[in-house]
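Hi, here's the filled form for the chain we discussed.

Project: internal
Contact: R.S.
Residues: 77
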Amino acid sequence: MFTTIHNPTTLGKLGALIFARQAPIMNAERHDTLLNRFRAWRERRAVAAELNQLSDRCLADIGLTRQGIDEMLRVSR
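And the returned structure, exactly as it came back:
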């Protein structure tokens, strides 16, 4: 069972605070940003997986270590 409160003053000051900060659920611009962030996260995961498959020698050739992979991806955000 759901209750919809159409009048924020019913809850007093707390209701006014909650409803004043409430943003629209589906804003196209926000949705696009969320989608782009998800794609970037998936791409970083794919890069990390690919780099982790390389040997230590190959990583050294490109100037990375196993510990440096996560650090490099964190900096590239």
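Let me know if anything looks off before we file it.
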